[in-house]
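sanity check this fold:
=====
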Amino acid sequence: MSDLSPSPNSPASAPSEASRSFVFDVTGMHCAACSSRVERVLNAKQGIHASVNLALERADVSVDGDEDAAAIKAMIEKTGFGASLREGSLSERRAQAERLDEDRRKEERHSFYLFLFSAVMTVPLVAPMIAMWFGLPLHLSPWVQLGLALPVQIIVGARFYRGAVKALINKAANMDVLVALGTSAAFLFSLYQTLSLGSEAVGHLYFEASAAILTLIVFGKWLEGRARRSAADALRALMGLRPREARVIGENGAADRMVPIEAVGMGDRVRVLPGEVVPVDGTIAEGRSEFDEALLSGESEPVLREVGDKVITGAVNGVGSVVLDVVALGEDTVLARIIRLVDQAQTGRAKMQNLADRISAVFVPVVVGLALLTFLGWMLVDGSVESALVAAVSVLVIACPCALGLATPTALVAGTGVAAKNGILIRDIDVLERARHVSHVVFDKTGTLTEGRPSLVAIELLNGASEEQVIADVAAIQKSSEHPLARACVLAAEERGLSVGTGEAVTAHVGEGVEGRVAGESYLIGTIAFLSRNGIEVEAVAEARDRMEAEGLSLSAVARAGQLVALIGFRDEVRIESKSAVAKLRERGLKTMLLSGDAPQTVARVGEVLGLDAVKGGVSPANKLKELEALQGDGQVVAMVGDGLNDAPALAKADLGIAMGSGTDVAIGAAAITLMRPDVRLVGAALEIAQKTYGKIWQNLFWAFIYNVIGIPLAAFGLLNPAMAGAAMAFSSVSVVSNALLLRRWTVKLEHPSHS
């Protein structure tokens, strides 16, 4: 896979290529006003571009100027929040993440204990109100109510008072300000009534309201914290796959030794015993075993790997013992790149989130203003301080900026996380928007709709050429190539036990062929059209060409010293799941098309077998771009699916590039979505989860907005008492997060493919 390190998104101007990037974990943020304040302060500084994610409690910062990490950390802390920089080695960063996760668990436990304490003190306060519903006379003296409410106001309310003071010191306002104002108003009014009227104050006290508000909000924050943390389970599970140690094989007969993963070097050999997690990316040098790659690719069944096969970090070994030659370590492993890609997607910013952030920035001052107007309005209409105060307090505590801030990031984290668990990696949030509008899905053939493992099945010889000589020389020139047909030639030479020389002056012509020299002889290998353009007479193989293409074979012509010497036919079986994958896409109303550099007759046969809407063969990489441009020019939104070097330009040009994970780094680097296993049915699944995630974001934003639009007027008109308003406020953000977490139930539904 390609290196896909996350780059911070910012509502400000985009960072330059020379900018330095930092990631900070930010503690103490309670609502969207908090995250907006941190982001606003950072972006106000020239040369700093920041994006703050409330759901993940992190800030991604890009710096074009002279500020270092310490300066950024100080800026965040000056806003009243804690900040810690993610830095160091892989193990150090993992340890830091584990400590932070444990701190958050401790905070959750503390919130729960606070809730239990608060609930014990609050239940007696609300009992008379509940008893009244059943016609039971139950009253508590004002002094008993004060004795129960005071500890709640002081102990439980302390966290909100601290947050409010920090916000106000920084000339800002957040949810803590609303809670502190609302509960203090209810408590102080009740305290005044108690001190003034004594036992006669019963019926005019709101101690139960202030206590119930704090109890319910603390409970809601506890639920919200658990839900927010579980939304990131997929990324946390991926990070947990990184082993801390590896068993390195000793040299010259020395015993194996367990060493820290940082001490493993390229060229080392690592032994992986049954049941162990693979600590490095490597190729199997000895042994064979099945590996569980479910968390990496979504593949539920163990995969058999033998000598020469590659295994990746995080895969769980089955019953066999294997020895690996190390090919990648640390940040260069496939697992590390998957983590970066998921991390990048989850910290992205949706365009609609900018509107929510702008509202959040002014939300609290506006709500305080509305509460003041509510108080004055009730005084003018009713003349009762008590009625005016109750309505104003209800307005303060029902307003919730949290739901607005959590609507987008929680859905994004949950959606991209569950996609990753199912083997679908979404590069960034813009993919979700584009996936909704796809009208055409264009496929490459080799390695996408076919197995990508062609075998040499036919050869037509000319001009006295020897079959063994032709195959050996073609293999010599192409043995360093990753092209499927080149690999098929090398494999054919190995199966025949041929002595393969060394190719010299080898030059590849993308999408056409290759030229080079073997033992002084010049060779041209590639399409018949490629050889013809280079002055090679090709009419002699016209009959053989037609016959092979009619059989559905892919062809490669070989010229030596300016003469055509062979026409080689390769068979690449269509993937068993391709037909059902195409059928599912067509059921979704999408048009399907095949563009391939292979011969038109071969491509037409594949298209007929799979039921594609349109096929075009003999298409060069440049012409693939033209075909895509033509579709886009007609107003179509095009998804391109491919896996080869030839596909990279088309993947980049398409509105939505989808790379098969079995493909080249270049193809994957150009794609917006990467499928971690070579199953083309995941194309439809990727479009589905992208659409579901985008839809969930809009659902959350709608409910967050509508909740405040409806709730605040109800409170202002006295239709909600403070306790009910507090309950509604507490569970508004919980409902948004819970709605987002419904995405975690999504899974890829794949029908068992048939050979029909």
Remarks:
- Residues 98-234+348-415+693-743 form one domain.
- Residues 90-133 form the longest helix (44 residues).
